[in-house]
Every structure is written in C-alpha cells, then in structure tokens.
Amino acid sequence: MDAAFTAEQDEMRRTLREILGKRCGPDEVKAAVRTAAGHDRELWQQLARQLGLPGIAVAEEYGGVGCTPADLALACEETGRALLPSPLLATAVLAVPLITALGTDAQRSALLPPLAAGGLTAALAVPGPALSTALALTGENAPGEWAGGGRAGGVQARPGADGGWRLYGEAAQVLDGHSASLLLVAAHTGGFARSRTLLFLVREGAPGLARSRQATLDETRPQARIQLRDTPAELLGADAAGATGDGVLAALAATGRTAAAVLAAEAVGAAGQALARTVEYVRQREQFGRPIGSFQAVKHRLADLYVHVQAARSAAYYAAWDPRQGGLALAQALEALRITAGEAIQLHGGIGFTWEHDAHLYFKRAAADELLFGPVHRLRAHAAHRAGLFTTPQEKVAV
C-alpha cells in the first residue's frame, strides 16, 4: 500500500481549506446552523460546483467525480477542521452508498446524478437512537436489535392497494432529516413471523410525512424527528417478494465501515484544529510577565495532546485505505477529539469556560459524535469481538 498522497489529493485539500477558511469561520458556523436548513446553502452549492464535493465517491457514469472513499475521508478532514455544517455526511457518506449498492438501475440513474451535483440531499432514517447499531459499528445489526423486531414500534411497511408501499411509525435523531429532499427509511415488513428490514424511499412533501427539527447539543449536526402516517414509499431495490433483508443489513454494515473511516478523519481534523487554536492562544496569553505556553506544565499537556492527535490521524489515514479498520480508527479519533477539546477549554482559562467561546464548538462536536456513533468503549469492544480477541481456545479449534 502506498500511503503517500497524490498531487490531486493535495490540491483538493488545499482548495477546500482555502474556501472554508474564507467562508466557514466560527461566526459563520454559528450563523449557518441557526438557519432553517441548518447549513449555508450557498456554500454547499459552491463546494458542489468547484470541487464536486457531494459526488467525490460517486462513479463518473452517474455524474460524480469517480474518486475513492479515501478521497472523501481526506476532504472530510478539512470539513472537520472548520466544523462545516452541511448535508455531506447524511448525503454522500450514508445515503449514496446505500443507493449505489441496493438501488435498481433506474433508481441509480434517477437519484445519483442530482445527489452528486448537490441539488438533491438525502438522509438515512432508522428507528430509535440506533444509528451506530444499524451501521454495525457497536454491535451486529440484526433487525431485532435496533428496528423494533417486527413488533410495535419502529417503522412498519405494508403493501398498498395501488401496488406500492405505505409506511407507519417514526424515527428520531435523523441527521439532516428536517431539510433532506429524499429520505431512506429503514422499515419492517413481512409481519412478526417473517420480519425483515428493508429500505424505502420517501420524497419530500409526501402525504402523511411530518418532520420537526430537534434540539441538539451540537448544532452543527442538525437532527430531526420523522413521523410517517400512511405515507407512500418506494422500495429501494428490486421486488421485495421473498427477500430476507440480509442484503440490506450487509449494505448497512458496509456503509458503516466506510462511514467510520470518514468520521474518524473528520474528528481528527476537528481535534487538530482545536489543538492549533489552543497553541496559538497560549503563545499570546501572558501571566507573570511571560506567555503561559512557556510554562513546563503547559508544554507537557500540549505534547500529550499532540501525541493523541497524531496517533488518531495515523489510524484514520490507515482506515481510509482499509475501511475494515474504521471502527477502531473512529474510536481512536473520537477519544482524541474529546480529550483535546476538553483540554482546550482548560488551557483557555476563565474565558474558555464561557459557553459562547469557540472552544465549546469542538467540545460539543466531540460529545455529540460519541453519543451518535459510539461510545468509544463499545466501538472498541465490537471491533475486538469481530477480530476474535474474545474467542475461547475451544471456539478457535472449532473454527
């Protein structure tokens, strides 16, 4: 494996950093998240036009750039530095791979080009606060573990009289669910005896669809509650007759591995920027007639943070080329971000403890991401289980 970045990758990162440096400072971030969309629509279109950001990992035949998920991860390291509020995660990282893997030729041809161009945004809706389980990040994504098991609760799908499908139920904590033009809804069908989870497409403005934005700790990750009442939907993929849902679960798990690598890179970018801002502050803040950064205790703390961030960056880069290591890389990156953001607040002193200070943007991102995609100890435990570290000698012999 050649881990060196190409000239094209370096240029993409440089251009993206330049654009975000001009358009996505802390004040702009705070203003964007308070809009109805939860992000700067004009900036999103600029990133789509100049860099093709929404379609980086989409095949060229569907209007995308045709790069690998590794390129998307490198781009997300830059968006993480700026804490960019955008539909990138929900659309390009979660929805696009599922449509690519499960959609029919007609569905891919109809949906992927506008998604790659940035004109169409999408969101993945799974029942309950179970996104990490649905993506097989913190446990196996068997249907009964996260989607209601076919019983009451979650989202249910029933064949409609018109030959289509009707959805009933609700899903909370849907990333960008309040503004997405297209929803990918995980729903149960087949009743309790033959319960299986399939994915359905729900368009913006569909009858019976109600969406409300939820209050969140991290405003840069807008979330919504989705309610479905006899809502018409289109099955993602071929006819569901005889389907077991195993293909959907496998696609969700594959998407989860790539998403973990991308999220790890994003968290590393945020941690690196939080550290850089802290280093800049301690160089300027004086106490007893000298910069506080010259004190040995402060130097030691910053050195520890640097090691955390660099170790997480190495893990994230490795996972970008081998997404099978995404879970471990994400655990390392989330831990590094949490520690770095917490220390940033401490090292900023009294001003750092004010809720409005920019350091809290990174602290909120660290806490919210661990709630959505973690926690760290479960990410590591599941990765260790899949690697066979907890297998007994007898079980190894049997295998």
TrEMBL record:
Residues 6-118 form the Acyl-CoA dehydrogenase/oxidase N-terminal domain. One of its GO terms (molecular function) is acyl-CoA dehydrogenase activity. Its cofactor is FAD. The keyword tRNA processing does not apply. It comes from the Bacteria. Signal peptide: none annotated. Keywords: FAD, Flavoprotein, Oxidoreductase. Belongs to the acyl-CoA dehydrogenase family. This is Acyl-CoA dehydrogenase. It comes from Streptomyces vinaceus.
